[in-house]
């Protein structure tokens, strides 16, 4: 069988997938680019060409800069916490203890809970008047008066991050645990004979096995955290005083609430560009890590 | 196991596809309502059932969304011709008219309607001299108070001015009856604008003058200053800044607020012993005024029912709207929302058991103050919400916050 | 097994207990809220277990009386099932040929990379044209329209997983079947697919969970019972207007039940899927 026939056949087999992706993702993306240079509205006017006006206005607006900072905080802190907690949980689950099988199975719970349900649940937990968090903390004597967790700018973002972490760290833990189980036992044993302490053992013996899978998880989680919409929409809608408004919420507001499809599109593309740069940088990291691991 | 799962799903998908709702001989119309204050979901469903009985050839599918989703859903559904009848807030006709969302129904409105419906209600559906629907919910924010707490504090009569409200709340706080006596809905949402507008009307302020924002000074600024003082002095429940109307009701019903600003619907709900701990102790008066400026204050929080331009059944849609807004229907369900019809307010069937509310309504409804009428209302409101929250949280001084709101209002 | 000091053993058990509490407490609380009378949920101090267990909300939400809150909820449950089911089946149907093609003909692999890269696109970047496009074809507020959009979220994942699965099946097996005179499709059907069945299952589970979870597009593209999904229905309930927290919790429990059951029962398959992509980088 000739190579060129193989390639043609491969393309034919890819065709349905590519056709769907091009028509449902590719074309809208191109159209978003077109829209971003117009002043089109969501309903009614087609809009006329306005050049780079939308981009200039969006990039210079205080809203965008502030939202970018909020989004970055959300992404960096929640992803970092998920990584650390995930690895710690995986190290724990790799030990021997009673009920280990059950606990491993339970780890899937938060991850399987739909995002919207998770957000709703935490919104109820944080309720300032009747929430479980206030009740538990006061009953335990850790808090003297009920607090408005989602109503104070300095706790709202943190409260969102906790809710996001709770749902996502088990995923990291499961990935890390699978990688840990792949560490050959004789290697750890040998390192113990060599007299390596637990930290040195983690750093030099175990970590190399974790790096690859963890980086992949890191890339996926960071991209998702940067695009975050659902959990914020359900829990705070960007409040209080816009302190939890992320880029996706801002785009929604511009394009759908204010119906300015044109400037909404330009903002969306700016976000896309940011995520792409981030992803490419990460991909380079992954490749480097994969190279050094093998 | 897996095979059977996917087979079940496959089956479900195909069976589902086959049973997609298809057209019967009858006409089917879709109506969008809100699951919120005013008529309860159960009331709306019961009214619709009565309509269907009277008009068996018209089937009405009801859809309920939170108030926060009402505007966006209406606009987005235009693309699919989704709704025939939509509930709209008093602040949207300007935008809906300029974006061609609602049908101009001026010609459909009869003399009888024109004469019978309160003039204040008509402002809800009118923009640029044209009517875009029928008013349905005639509503404003009242000052509710807990009679028992006021009595314990030795307060004879509820406040007539906003300053009196603060004084009375201080007495209640100082006597240790409640730590934070006043509850409001100051979440970053339209609800906060309604409370703010009530105060703006009390202080005689203006939102827009000659097409330019005018809330940064005078009454607009006084209103925000009052909110900030009430918040920072500890008279206001600090959680108000994440409350919507239902949270306010819950706190009031639990006996944890001496005063609360809320819509009509709270009166009978808070008086229902099944859910409320303060049943029988609920007092209601118009929102207070400001000495030398106003006797009472009120925001126009009314809503109307309109036909979308995407509707293929405008006749049936109008029939449904006329039924829902008819005096008979409204009188029958006058517990959570008061009728738009002038003569209803003297009808014993309506007033019975809620004389106090009717008395407050007569004063409050006459004083209703509009939020600005502009196609860019969403942007203005969003900017104002931010200003209110930033001021409450001490992130900005009220005058600065309102100034930047004016700049970001799109006006 | 290494020997451990008693202190370390105690530490491990304490940590495991803490982890179990952290994972379980919020989920259990969701369930407790769903069976607590309304008064208990606004009691101060809060009641952690209801005086009287109340399952009536489940009956309310699952009732099918026409034009009731229950009918609205069950309709959205069905919509979610149908949309997730259709999108998953389609995503597998696209993934099998495409995944095999990339696995056997690496020269076309770059196109799969492009497809996977679409994952980086925030949905808001596509929403406006998609909205207008669906409106043009009359597919707004339509389960087929939403399933088509979901397909583009699921297909990159399923294709990637299938490709990893096919990579693990030696080409020699296929080659020998072909020599025996089987056509390509016969070979795939008789030899390759049965070997890849576990991967197909894993991919389908992932796809189902992803589709079940989606909220943003559903929020924009559906408006009523004809297509509204469960996630949107729950967000509507939680929008701050329903004062019965127990009802919100009940809706949450019902929406979480299918994916949680799948997760618990199919754990092994899911984890192998999670890691197969990851470990190979």
Automatic annotation (TrEMBL), chain A:
PROSITE patterns: ABC_TM1. Keywords: Cell membrane, Membrane, Sugar transport, Transmembrane, Transmembrane helix, Transport. Residues 68-286 form the ABC transmembrane type-1 domain. The chain crosses the membrane at residues 12-30, 73-93, 105-125, 156-183, 204-223, 265-285. GO terms for biological process: transmembrane transport. InterPro entries: MetI-like, MetI-like_sf. The keyword Nucleotide-binding does not apply. The keyword Nucleotide-binding does not apply. PANTHER family: BLR7065 PROTEIN (PTHR43005), INTEGRAL MEMBRANE SUGAR TRANSPORT PROTEIN (PTHR43005:SF2). This is ABC transporter permease. It comes from Aminobacter aminovorans.
Automatic annotation (TrEMBL), chain B:
It is found in: Periplasm. It comes from the Bacteria. The keyword Repressor does not apply. Residues 1-25 form the signal peptide. Keywords: Periplasm, Signal, Sugar transport, Transport. The keyword Signal applies. Belongs to the bacterial solute-binding protein 1 family. PANTHER family: ABC TRANSPORTER PERIPLASMIC-BINDING PROTEIN YCJN-RELATED, ARABINOSE-BINDING PROTEIN-RELATED. This is Multiple sugar transport system substrate-binding protein. It comes from Aminobacter ciceronei.
Automatic annotation (TrEMBL), chain C:
The chain crosses the membrane at residues 7-32, 83-102, 114-137, 143-162, 190-212, 245-266. It is a multi-pass membrane protein. Keywords: Cell membrane, Membrane, Sugar transport, Transmembrane, Transmembrane helix, Transport. The keyword Disulfide bond does not apply. This is Multiple sugar transport system permease protein. Pfam families: BPD_transp_1 (PF00528). It comes from the Bacteria. The lineage of its organism: Bacteria, Pseudomonadati, Pseudomonadota, Alphaproteobacteria, Hyphomicrobiales. Belongs to the binding-protein-dependent transport system permease family. It comes from Aminobacter ciceronei. It is found in: Cell membrane. SUPFAM superfamilies: MetI-like (SSF161098). Gene3D superfamilies: MetI-like. Residues 77-266 form the ABC transmembrane type-1 domain.
């Amino acid at each position: 069988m000739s190579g060129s026939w193989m390639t043609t056949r491969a393309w034919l087999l890819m065709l349905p997938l590519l056709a769907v992706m091009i028509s449902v993702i590719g074309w809208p993306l191109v159209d978003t680019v077109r829209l971003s240079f117009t002043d089109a509205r969501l309903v009614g006017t087609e809009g006329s060409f306005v050049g780079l006006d939308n981009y200039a206005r969006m990039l210079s607006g205080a809203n965008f800069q502030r939202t970018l900072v909020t989004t970055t905080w959300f992404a960096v802190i929640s992803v970092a916490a998920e990584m650390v907690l995930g690895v710690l949980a995986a190290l724990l689950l790799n030990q021997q203890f009673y009920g280990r099988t059950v606990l491993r199975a339970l780890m899937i719970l938060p991850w399987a809970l739909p995002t919207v349900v998770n957000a709703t649940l935490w919104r109820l937990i944080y309720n300032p008047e009747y929430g479980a968090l206030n009740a538990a903390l006061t009953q335990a004597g850790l808090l003297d008066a009920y607090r408005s967790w989602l109503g104070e700018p300095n706790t709202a973002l943190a409260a969102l991050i906790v809710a996001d972490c709770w749902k996502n760290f088990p995923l990291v833990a499961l990935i890390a645990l699978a990688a840990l189980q792949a560490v050959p036992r004789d290697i750890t044993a040998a390192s113990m004979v060599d007299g390596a302490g637990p930290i040195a053992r983690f750093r030099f013996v175990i970590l190399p096995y974790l790096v690859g899978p963890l980086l992949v998880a890191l890339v996926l989680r960071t991209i998702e955290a940067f695009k975050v919409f659902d959990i914020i929409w359900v829990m705070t809608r960007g409040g209080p005083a816009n302190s939890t408004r992320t880029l996706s919420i801002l785009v929604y507001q511009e394009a759908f609430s204010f119906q300015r499809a044109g400037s909404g599109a330009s903002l969306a593309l700016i976000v896309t560009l940011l995520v792409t740069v981030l992803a490419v940088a990460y991909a380079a990291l992954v490749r480097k890590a994969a190279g050094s691991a093998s | 196991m897996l095979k059977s799962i996917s087979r079940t799903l496959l089956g479900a998908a195909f069976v589902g596809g086959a049973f997609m709702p298809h057209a019967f001989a009858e006409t089917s119309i879709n109506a969008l309502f809100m699951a919120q204050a005013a008529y309860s979901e159960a009331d709306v469903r019961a009214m619709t059932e009565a309509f269907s009985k009277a008009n068996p050839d018209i089937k009405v599918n009801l859809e309920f969304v939170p108030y926060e989703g009402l505007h966006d859903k209406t606009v987005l559904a235009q693309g699919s011709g989704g709704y025939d009848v939509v509930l709209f807030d008093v602040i949207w006709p300007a935008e809906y008219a300029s974006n061609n969302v609602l049908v101009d129904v001026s010609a459909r409105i009869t003399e009888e309607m024109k004469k019978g419906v309160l003039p204040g209600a008509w402002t809800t559906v009118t923009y640029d001299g044209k009517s875009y629907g029928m008013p349905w919910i005639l509503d404003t924010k009242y000052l509710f108070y807990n009679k028992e707490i006021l009595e314990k504090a030795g307060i004879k009569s509820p406040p007539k001015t906003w300053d009196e409200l603060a004084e009375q709340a201080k007495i209640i706080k100082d006597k240790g009856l409640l730590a934070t006596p006043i509850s409001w809905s100051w979440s970053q949402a339209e609800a906060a604008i309604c409370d703010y507008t009530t105060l703006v009307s009390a202080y005689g302020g203006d939102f827009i003058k000659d097409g330019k924002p005018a809330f940064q000074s005078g009454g607009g600024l006084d209103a925000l200053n009052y909110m900030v003082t009430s918040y920072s002095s500890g008279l206001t429940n600090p959680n108000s800044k994440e409350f919507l109307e239902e949270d306010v009701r819950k706190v009031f019903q639990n006996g944890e607020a001496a005063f609360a600003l809320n819509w009509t619907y709270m009166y009978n709900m808070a008086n229902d012993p099944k859910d409320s701990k303060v049943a029988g102790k609920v007092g209601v008066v118009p929102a207070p005024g400001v000495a030398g400026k106003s006797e009472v204050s009120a925001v126009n929080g009314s809503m109307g029912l309109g036909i979308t331009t995407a509707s293929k059944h405008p006749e049936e849609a109008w029939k449904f709207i006329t039924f829902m807004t008819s005096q008979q229907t409204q009188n029958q369900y006058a517990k959570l929302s008061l009728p738009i019809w002038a003569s209803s307010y003297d009808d014993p069937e309506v007033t019975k058991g809620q004389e106090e509310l009717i008395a407050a309504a007569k004063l409050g409804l006459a004083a209703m103050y509009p939020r600005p009428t502009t196609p860019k209302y969403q942007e203005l409101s969003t900017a104002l919400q931010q200003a209110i929250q930033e001021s409450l949280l001490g992130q900005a001084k009220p005058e600065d916050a309102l100034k930047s709101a004016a700049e970001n209002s799109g006006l | 097994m290494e020997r451990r000091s008693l202190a370390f053993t105690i530490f491990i058990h304490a940590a495991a207990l803490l982890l179990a509490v952290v994972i379980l407490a919020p989920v259990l609380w969701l369930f407790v809220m769903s069976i607590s009378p309304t008064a208990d949920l606004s009691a101060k101090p809060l009641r952690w277990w209801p005086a009287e267990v109340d399952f009536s909300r489940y009956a309310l939400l699952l009732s099918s009386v026409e034009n009731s809150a229950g009918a609205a909820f069950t309709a959205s449950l069905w919509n979610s099932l149908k949309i997730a089911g259709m999108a998953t089946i389609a995503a597998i149907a696209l993934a099998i040929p495409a995944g095999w093609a990339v696995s056997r003909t690496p020269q076309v692999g770059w196109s799969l990379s492009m497809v996977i890269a679409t994952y980086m696109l925030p949905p808001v970047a596509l929403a406006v044209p998609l909205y207008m496009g669906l409106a043009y074809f009359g597919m707004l507020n339509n389960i087929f329209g939403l399933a088509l959009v979901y397909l583009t979220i699921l297909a990159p994942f399923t294709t990637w997983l299938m490709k990893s699965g096919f990579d693990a099946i030696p080409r020699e097996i296929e080659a020998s079947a072909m020599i025996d005179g089987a056509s390509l499709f016969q070979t795939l059907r008789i030899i390759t697919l049965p070997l890849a069945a576990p991967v197909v299952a894993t991919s389908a589970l992932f796809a189902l969970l992803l589709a079940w979870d989606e909220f943003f597009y559903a929020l924009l593209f559906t408006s009523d019972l004809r297509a509204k999904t469960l996630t949107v229905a729950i967000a509507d309930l939680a929008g701050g207007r329903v004062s019965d927290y127990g009802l919100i919790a009940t809706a949450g429990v019902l929406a979480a039940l299918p994916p949680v059951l799948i997760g618990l029962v199919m754990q092994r398959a899911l984890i192998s899927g999670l890691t197969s992509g990851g470990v190979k980088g």
